[in-house]
Specification:
398 residues; alpha/beta; Rossmann fold; eight-stranded mixed beta sheet; 14 helices
Length: 398
């Protein structure tokens, strides 16, 4: 479910001199896992904390350390930044941030930063007193004003044994920020509501009726919408997935709880995506005590749950949000999706067979709208999410 913005991208990773430098190796690995190619620049101080052998082993490229590298006849800093789509500084020490803010360029790292032509992302890491110092705060403000993206620092335990604001953000969060920096912000200013996961309908205090939905598709849509600049509310049924970075997550359990949360959030939305696998039925009677096993049968009488998508469609005003529904089927995929599109007042239905996407990281879907049926190839759920969001982008500019 990671943002696909790094596939085929070239990242220049600048490693500063701080104890958090050991995490820069994890950042390098995560960048590669998401499809990026890497060049690494180690500052003199950075080499005191982590060796070039580590990065050579991870990236397959020896890190650069010397502005005056005799093995390179030209301007190394210009060559490195000419092919870099993004420069990422991990960790960004107080000294390195100060030199960036004042345009100093006396080594390979700072000349690269001054010559960078694409986005620059920094992950500060230092003692809280250094982070809170007015000079550091002024430097950060100056860098932000120039468009440098800052991720962290966060509150946490430090190498000194103390705790406070100064701990470097975690590698995955740093790479998320890098991906966002390379993602067009075409949904900036939009408000998106996404439902995800299944619902649990209680039988008694310990048992429930539910389904096997993991929530991955809805979480991917929420993450990609945020990466593209939208303000996102994710209403999630029970799921083991971590909250997507930057997304407001509302955790619910039952269909009725999800209905209440979605209706409130949808009141100010531009896009509502009902990716959740909401239970159609719930037990009519919920036992307040655990039901004991007996020799006889246990018979449950089920009643219908509210149809959240249909309710949204029926109540929508002409200036209301775009509505996207999902249809998970076991047969007659397109026919069922077209019927759902009309019956529930959707603008788009994302349809897939249970065998193609349930619980996995990939999905094969068909996009069904009033004017077109568009089957997509098997792809990652983040890529599917972008197809859905592309439809919304076209819808809002119609």
């Amino acid at each position: 479910m990671n943002p696909p913005a790094l596939t085929g991208r070239e990242v220049l990773l600048v490693v500063g001199g701080g104890i958090a430098a050991f995490k820069s190796a994890l950042v390098a690995r995560e960048l590669q896992r998401r499809g990026a190619s890497l060049e690494t620049v180690l500052t003199t101080a950075g080499q005191r904390f982590i060796t070039g052998v580590t990065f050579a082993g991870i990236t397959g490229r020896a890190p650069r350390v010397d502005l005056w590298d005799p093995a390179y006849p030209g301007e190394l800093h210009i060559a490195l930044t000419a092919k870099a789509d993004l420069v990422l500084v991990v960790p960004a020490t107080a000294d390195l941030l100060a030199r960036m803010a004042h345009g100093l360029a006396d080594d390979l790292a700072t000349t690269c930063l001054l010559a960078a032509r694409g986005p620059v992302v920094v992950a500060p890491a230092m003692h809280p007193r250094m982070w809170e110092h007015p000079a550091t705060q002024a430097n950060i403000a100056a860098l932000r004003a120039r468009g440098v993206a800052v991720v962290g620092p966060v509150v946490g335990a430090l190498a000194s044994g103390e705790s406070g604001v100064g701990r470097m953000a975690e590698p995955e969060e740093i790479v998320d920020a890098a991906a966002r920096a390379l993602t067009p912000q075409d949904l900036a200013g939009c408000r998106v509501v996404v439902s995800a996961g299944g619902t649990h309908e209680a039988i008694d205090p310990v048992r429930f009726v539910g389904n096997r939905s993991s929530g991955r598709m809805g979480y991917a849509i929420a993450a990609r919408a945020h990466a593209r600049g939208a303000a996102v509310v994710l209403v999630s049924g029970p799921s083991a997935l971590a909250d997507p970075s930057g997304v407001t997550v509302l955790r619910v359990r039952s269909a009725r709880e999800m209905r209440d949360a979605v209706l409130v959030a949808a009141g100010s939305a531009d896009l509502v995506v009902m990716a959740a696998a909401v239970a159609d039925y719930r037990p009519a009677d919920v036992s307040v005590e655990k039901i004991k096993k007996t020799d006889g049968e246990l018979v449950l009488r089920m009643v219908k749950n509210p149809d959240i998508l249909a309710e949204l469609g029926a109540a929508r005003r002409p200036d209301g949000p775009m509505l996207v529904g999902f249809a998970l089927e076991t047969s007659d995929l397109v026919a069922h999706a077209r019927e759902k599109l009309a019956r529930k007042g959707c603008d788009l239905v994302v349809a897939n067979l249970a065998t193609d996407g349930f619980e996995g990281d990939d999905n094969r879907v068909t996009l069904v709208s009033p004017s077109a049926i568009t089957p997509l190839e098997l792809m990652g759920k983040s890529a599917v999410a972008d197809h859905v969001l592309d439809r919304f982008s076209a819808w809002r500019s119609r």
